Amino acid sequence: MKLEKKRILLFLIFILIFLTPLSILYSKSENTFLLTILMLTPMISSLLTRLSTKEGFRNLNIKPDFKKNWKLYIKAYFLPPFLMIIGATIFFLLFQNLFNPLQSKYAINLGVVSDSEYSLKLAVIIPIAILINPIAGLIQCFGEEFAWRGYLLTKLVYVFGERKGVLINGILWGLWHSPIILTGFNYGKENSVLGVFAMILFCIVIGNICSYLFLKSKSVIAPTIFHASLNAIDLYAPASLFMRVKPNLFIGPNPVGIIGGIGFIGYSIFLCFKYKNLNKMS
C-alpha cells in the first residue's frame, strides 16, 4: 500500500514536470501541436514512474482481447455521438429560438441556401465524420488512457477502493486540464476560472465512463476508443452545425455544457450503479 502511494505521488510529479512548460508555451502561442504532445506526456510519466520505482513493465493493460470485448469496442466508438445527439436535441427543444441551421458557421462555409440542401449534406458528412474522425485521435488519446486509466486508476482503486478511486481519478484528470482551460480552451477566456471547475466536473463524468470501460474490458483500448470518439465531436459540434449566435459553452449545445452533456451525465450516473457488479460481469 505504501509503495503504491509513492508511485501515485511520483507519477503526479512527473505529470507536473511536463505540464508546466507545455502549458506555458501553449498560453503564449496557442499552437495546437503542443496539445498533441501534452496528451502523450501522461504515458511517458507512467513509464518513468515504472522505471524509477522498479515496477517494471508487466500489467500494462493494453491487451485488447477483441474476441471477448468486440461489442464493448463498438459501443465505445459510437456512444459519444449518440449521447451528444441526446444532449443537443434536449438543448434545442428548450431553446428553439437558437436553432438556426442555415445561419450556422458550417452552413455558411458550405454555401448552402436551403434547409433541404443542408440536410442532404449533413446526412452524408456527419456519418462519415462519426466513422472517420476518431481515427485521427487514437494515438493521442492512447497516451492519456494508457496512464490515467491503465496506470493511475489501478493504483487508486487498490488504495482507495473502486468507487472512490474512480472519483479521485476523474478529479485529478480534470485538474491536469486546468492550465489549458485557463487559456480559454473549451469555455472561452471570459470565464476561464469558472471553466476550470466545469472541466473538472466534465472529467469526473467522462472519467467515470472511461474507467468503467477500462475495468470492464481490462484494457486501455476501450477507453481510448471512447476518448477519441468524444474528441472527434469538436469537428462537427452542434453549435457549429445548428447555431448562428455564439453559444454559452457552460450550457450547451456542445457536450461540455450542462445540458449539451446531459446524455453523458445520465449515462455516467447509470454506470455508478453497475460498479458493485463489475467483477460478476462476463
From TrEMBL:
GO terms for molecular function: endopeptidase activity. Residues 132-233 form the CAAX prenyl protease 2/Lysostaphin resistance protein A-like domain. This is CAAX protease self-immunity. It comes from Anaerorhabdus furcosa. Keywords: Hydrolase, Membrane, Protease, Transmembrane, Transmembrane helix. InterPro entries: MmRce1-like, Rce1/LyrA-like_dom. The keyword Cell membrane does not apply. Coiled coil: none annotated. The chain crosses the membrane at residues 7-26, 32-51, 72-98, 118-139, 166-187, 193-215, 224-243, 255-273. GO terms for biological process: CAAX-box protein maturation; proteolysis.
